[in-house]
């Protein structure tokens, strides 16, 4: 029986000392050490983060052999697939090889197929052999093993939908799950960037939670997205605007909400300087939820102060309890969601 | 009687169109226009933002006449004192000259002395004459006028404490006010950067709200700050650590809380990469409140996901209802706070 490791994986940090595995330069990927609160995974494939894969591909001049050699070099040097230039990782798909005895109450058994929902940039990894490189989808098939720590989150891959569909939805699972938690019956909700992958899922969840007495207004930039959102009943109203023009968003959004300020706004706009467009339309004591990674902390903090808005601004956390279940349930419930995801995101 | 302007001041934006006054290059500082929801202020002095004043002083080679000329040039060109290099503003002190008729229910009368709590970077300003430049404290005395919009926040300067003391406290008024709102009786609270200006105020409020059944733990870097916090009963416990070393903070903080994770953590650490030290010690469903402007949005969002922490992370909003009253009340109540502020921040 192995000894117990740190819940966050700190026992595998080699250098520098005192940091967590994501910030570490090098971590211990010795798969023969059996800590009692780790999960050993037989890896099937790595989904390399897009910016990382693009960098490696360009450095290798597109040559698959060189791409493979670079990946092997990084993983053998660092003990994890964290691109030293971009700092980013990706995720992996694999099968449970061994479940530490402290985790025996998990709903997992040897052989279960999972996707990790924590980054490769913090995941101990050992590659025995690269078996295929799929340059067009940033995917690398390997033989090898990886470790999930006690705190590491993952999803069992469902057998009632394609792997590609499940992965596309799980990629943004935090957003609909947070929406489901934040939105109350009867709320008015503004979703910025409503036509994108996370935006559509947020609208879907907001409609469910706000109910018929609520009012879900989407903002998008194209007439095509507007049509899609309205036809499928993903929003009560959809406005066309540009999140970098806060006054235009404000005017159109209020008009779509009987002139009233919103209870909740959700930012899924992946461009910079969208902060004020999310803050202005919300009422005092309302909630502004930033899911977009393009959000600037200082612009949000100083922006709300500058207009005297006492709103609660929340940093979108990619993890929320039951986020996998909530997101896959939405995909299962809605044929329209499945059709859109299959057409656009696979 | 004047017409009604936009609540956020958009009616005074000259260029570019569609943005708010802070993002605008040039705004309208015509003081003869009387909008019914504006406040006209006779300005006494400008407290120029420190990075802005340093830039101007350096460009002027320290020459006061050139500093004055540069300030006049900026204000006449842009209609506001927003340094085009740093983008920053500052705040002003003045007396109410005229209160628009739509704001007659405000607790203000002509002649009241106020400090603006919105930035000079969004405040219409006209300077008739610069009467003194105090280079050592980034302060410029002027004759001139400014406009506060309907959404613009301000504080009436109290007559029971020095102007300098009131301004030092109001500078960070959002932090103790948010603390007062977040912390519940019996909560365990971790304050990082507890020895600084906002940190001390947060500890003071957290002790009041958590009460004797709560546990307020401060983290600071110097033995001197630790002593000060404990002697004055601003914390139950104080640990010495470095916010860039999350595992050290985690270990010491949990030890100071009977091994339990915290209900709330508050970041007042003004250095980068303190996000994980704030996130790790907090329990699932707990609250992480980032007041530090050095916070990085992506590091917070991805960091919590990487360790599977379902915590609510809040962007510190400089404005909260009653933040002036809450902060000045703390200064009035506590002789120890007054002594520390008078010694260190004036």
What does this protein structure show overall?
2 copies of one chain form a homodimer. Chain A is of the alpha/beta class. In chain A, 32% of the residues lie in helices and 25% in strands. Chain A is built from 11 helices and 14 strands. The first copy, chain A, has helices at residues 50-59, 64-78, 163-170, 174-182, 197-210, 223-231, 246-255, 275-279, 297-306, 323-333, 335-344; strands at 13-15, 26-27, 39-48, 90-99, 113-116, 125-134, 139-148, 154-156, 188-192, 215-220, 237-240, 262-267, 282-290, 312-315. In chain A, the strands form 3 sheets. The first copy, chain A, has a 6-stranded antiparallel sheet with strand order 6-7-3-4-5-8. Chain A has a 6-stranded parallel sheet with strand order 11-10-9-12-13-14, sandwiched between helices. Chain A is elongated and about 65 Å long. Chains A and B meet through helix 7, helix 9 and strand 14 of A and helix 7, helix 9 and strand 14 of B. Strand 14 of chain A pairs antiparallel with strand 14 of chain B.
Strand order within the widest beta sheet of chain A: 6-7-3-4-5-8
Number of distinct helices of chain A = 11
Query: What's the number of extended β-strand segments of chain A?
Result: 14
**Unreliable stretches of chain A:** none
Structural class of chain A: alpha/beta
**End-to-end distance of chain A:** 42 Å
Oligomerization category of the chains in this entry: homodimer
Shape of chain A: elongated
On the 0 to 100 scale, the average pLDDT of chain A is 94
């Amino acid at each position: 029986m192995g000894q117990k490791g740190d819940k966050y994986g700190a026992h595998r940090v080699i250098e520098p000392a005192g940091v967590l595995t994501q910030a570490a330069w090098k971590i211990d990927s010795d798969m023969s050490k059996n800590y009692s609160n780790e999960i050993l995974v037989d890896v099937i494939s790595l989904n390399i983060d897009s910016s990382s894969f693009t960098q490696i591909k360009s450095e290798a001049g597109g040559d698959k052999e060189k791409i493979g050699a670079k990946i092997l070099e990084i993983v053998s040097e660092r003990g994890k697939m964290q691109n030293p230039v971009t700092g980013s990782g990706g995720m992996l798909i694999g099968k449970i090889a061994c479940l530490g005895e402290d985790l025996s109450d998990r709903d997992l058994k040897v052989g279960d197929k999972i996707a990790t929902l924590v980054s490769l940039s913090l995941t101990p990894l050992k590659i025995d052999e690269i078996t295929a490189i799929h340059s067009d989808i940033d995917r690398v098939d390997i033989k090898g093993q990886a470790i999930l720590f006690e705190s590491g989150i993952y999803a069992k891959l469902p057998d009632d939908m394609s792997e590609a569909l499940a992965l596309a939805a799980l990629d943004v699972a935090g957003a609909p799950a947070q929406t489901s938690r934040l939105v109350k019956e009867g709320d008015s909700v503004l979703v910025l960037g409503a036509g994108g992958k996370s935006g559509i899922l947020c609208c879907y969840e907001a409609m469910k939670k706000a109910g018929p007495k609520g009012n879900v207004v989407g903002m998008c930039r194209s007439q095509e997205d507007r049509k899609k959102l309205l036809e499928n009943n993903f929003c009560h109203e959809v406005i066309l605007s540009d999140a970098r023009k806060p006054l235009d968003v404000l005017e159109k959004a209020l008009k779509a909400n009987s002139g009233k300020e919103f209870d909740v706004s959700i930012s899924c706009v992946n461009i910079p300087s969208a902060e004020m467009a999310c803050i202005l339309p919300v009422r005092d004591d309302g909630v502004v939820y930033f899911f977009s990674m393009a959000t600037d902390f200082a612009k949000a903090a100083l922006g709300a102060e500058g207009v005297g808005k006492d709103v609660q601004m929340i940093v979108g956390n990619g993890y929320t309890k039951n986020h996998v279940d909530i997101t896959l349930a939405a995909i299962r419930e809605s044929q329209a969601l499945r059709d859109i995801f299959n057409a656009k995101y696979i």
